[in-house]
Amino acid sequence: MTVATHSRFLTVGTGAIGAYYTWRMQQSGRCHVTAVCRSNYEAVLAKGVEIQTVAWGEGPHVFKPDHVVKTVPNETYDYIIVCMKALPDVYSIADIIAPAVEASPNASIVLIQNGIGVEDPIKARFPRNPILSSIAYIGVTQNEAGVVYHSGAVQRIVTGLFEPIEGVDTASALQVFTDICKDGGLETVVADDIQNYRWQKLVWNGAMNPICILSDLWTVSNVLANEKYTEMAWTTKREIAALAEALGYPMPPTLVDVSMATSRRLADGYKASMVVDLEEGRPMEIEVIMTNPIRIAEEHNLTHIIPTWYQLYKDLIKYIDERQKAN
What is the model's pTM? Predict the structure, then answer.
């Protein structure tokens, strides 16, 4: 693979995550960025994205993409970076990015998304494009169009190759991308087994999202101030970690302890992503965060390992169904 002086990046989904990470990649001086914006298109086109962060000095910090567009262009790119939520029951990521991928047979597709199984529909549709599966560890929100707030100083990205492809230099594709991330100042981890990291992050997402909703406590701090639901969080996280182990993904022995400690350090009033989506009337990532891994557990006859989580899943589906009927 010949490394161009400037790689052509297309960011699909320039919300809080997409804007922050692509801003840092652009700061490497090694890429030109086209940003696909939807609800924030006018704001980003007019003045870019204001990044409110203490991680890079006082600022002001403004991310100005080289190009701002409303839809995915039929143009050639080196990297197509997907930062949209994985909602396979609402829309097809493969359909959305198809114009750019079809124009870019050698492009790498970077999936910065939560959940299990997010790569499968992309692999099925575009089997010859390298898929760089990535996980974001960062606290960012876009409370108004074109303004992104970064909480704390953590700005980590974990990236690994989903699968090797015969005859394709996937190693170089991974190295160039992660080098650009590093040069942009992101804490960058290159993972040999990215699925292990996906399961590690699922330990938090899979437990705290349903518990925050079903407890009717909504915020992480409220949950951890309640003895019953704190114990439920411990139990559920241990079950998810045990399921990962049973499926062949060794978990760090301190993972659950660290996950709980991280939860306690979150700002008062912090809400898990599904809570925010529920409040805003948006679709939630139930399929990739809960349905897919639980389906895997069922297929491997491992649901006995996750009794608490399995019941939380059933209760959440029932809760959402009843809420939709009531509305």
Answer: 0.92
